[in-house]
């Protein structure tokens, strides 16, 4: 079995440390935290494979820590993170032996990719084995859910919120879900609401009826649709979500491989699948999750 990549994350901002650890751990990494330079040097004894090091820290800054790390472990790759640096700082980091220098806010997929690159270039064959669906999915507790008897107006507000990162700091970014799961009173997933469902819901009913006689056809012309978008939307705002939602997506076991997930999405023309474990929904795997995994694999 390939060994798990161990990361030493050094940053003085607690929320950033904890948020980063949470996401990287979900991606299969073993993350050790340090809040400053002295603690980072102490935790080198835990033999991390990669160090992710903030530059702007009180006391011993990242450049000083980098030099001391390289003096003790010349072989260990160090990825520098900063929201305050520039070209001189980057040049100093590279001269001191940094593997890479990334600006904050740093996309988590880019950071994950560079961690993998660092291990590969240092001759480490860790994490060669393909991940199962459970290691790529979004856990259910991190996916937005709404009650089936809630209003469409409330659902739109929740759907908008899902566009933004669920991470508790604006210095770390993730892609939004672009959909919300609909649950019943027992918290069982009974449907899904997407933007396409909302657009379908505001289509006037007569557009799906048989075509009218020629004399009446002009009433169906788009030239008479001015204001209809707003009018139809206001009419459905108070409806219950269950009236316009789509059925729950197909499900896939958490132990399934990624090719099975890709096949199900393509064959069934779906953008996401429910992930199940122990006879219950434990997460959602989206097409963008498979895309990010493609990027990671090709970066190895």
Brief digest:
With 300 residues, this protein is an alpha/beta fold.
Would you kindly provide a written description of the structure presented here, covering whatever features stand out?
34% of the residues lie in helices and 21% in strands. The protein has a 5-stranded parallel beta sheet with strand order 2-1-3-4-5, sandwiched between helices. Strands 7-15-14-13 form a 4-stranded mixed beta sheet. It has helices at 14-26, 37-42, 62-72, 87-95, 108-121, 152-161, 195-201, 228-236, 258-268, 287-298; strands at residues 6-10, 30-34, 50-54, 78-82, 100-103, 106-107, 138-139, 145-147, 172-173, 179-183, 189-194, 246-247, 251-253, 272-277, 280-286. The protein has 10 helices and 15 strands. It has 300 residues and is α/β, with parallel strands linked by helices. It folds into 2 domains: 6-129, Response regulator (Rossmann fold, 3-Layer(aba) Sandwich), CATH 3.40.50; 134-296, CBS-domain.
Secondary-structure blueprint of this entry?
Blueprint (H helix, E strand, L loop, with lengths): L5 E5 L3 H13 L3 E5 L2 H6 L7 E5 L7 H11 L5 E5 L4 H9 L4 E4 L2 E2 H14 L16 E2 L5 E3 L4 H10 L10 E2 L5 E5 L5 E6 H7 L26 H9 L9 E2 L3 E3 L4 H11 L3 E6 L2 E7 H12 L2
Parallel strand pairs: 1-2, 1-3, 3-4, 4-5, 6-9, 8-10, 13-14
Antiparallel strand pairs: 7-15, 10-11, 11-12, 14-15
Named CATH topology of the largest domain: CBS-domain
Number of domains: 2
Task: Classify the secondary structure makeup into a structural class.
Answer: alpha/beta
CATH class of the largest domain: Alpha Beta
């Amino acid at each position: 079995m390939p060994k798990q990549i161990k990361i030493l994350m050094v940053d003085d901002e607690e929320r950033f440390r904890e948020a980063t650890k949470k996401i990287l751990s979900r991606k299969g990494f073993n993350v050790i935290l340090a809040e400053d330079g002295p603690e980072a040097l102490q935790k080198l004894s835990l033999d991390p494979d990669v160090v992710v090091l903030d530059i702007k820290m009180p006391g011993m800054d990242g450049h000083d820590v980098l030099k001391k790390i390289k003096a003790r472990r010349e072989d260990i790759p160090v990825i520098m993170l900063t929201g305050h640096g520039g070209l001189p700082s980057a040049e100093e980091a590279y001269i001191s032996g940094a593997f890479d220098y990334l600006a904050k806010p740093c996309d988590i997929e880019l950071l994950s990719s560079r961690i993998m690159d660092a291990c590969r270039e240092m001759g480490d064959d860790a994490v060669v084995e393909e991940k199962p669906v459970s290691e790529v999915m979004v856990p259910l507790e991190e996916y937005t859910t709404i009650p089936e008897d809630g209003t469409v107006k409330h659902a739109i507000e929740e759907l908008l919120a899902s566009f933004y990162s669920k991470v508790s700091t604006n210095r770390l970014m993730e892609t939004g879900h672009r959909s919300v799961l609909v649950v019943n009173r027992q918290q069982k997933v009974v449907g899904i609401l997407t933007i396409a469902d909302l657009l379908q819901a505001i289509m006037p009913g007569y557009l799906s009826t048989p075509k009218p006689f020629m004399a009446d056809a002009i009433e169906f012309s788009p030239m008479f649709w001015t204001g209809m978008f707003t009018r139809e939307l206001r009419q459905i705002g108070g409806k219950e979500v269950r009236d316009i939602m789509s059925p729950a997506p197909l499900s896939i076991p958490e132990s399934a491989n990624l090719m099975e997930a890709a096949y199900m999405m393509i064959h069934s023309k779906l953008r996401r699948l429910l992930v199940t474990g122990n006879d219950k929904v434990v997460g959602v795997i989206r097409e963008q999750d498979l895309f990010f995994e493609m990027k990671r694999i090709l970066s190895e």
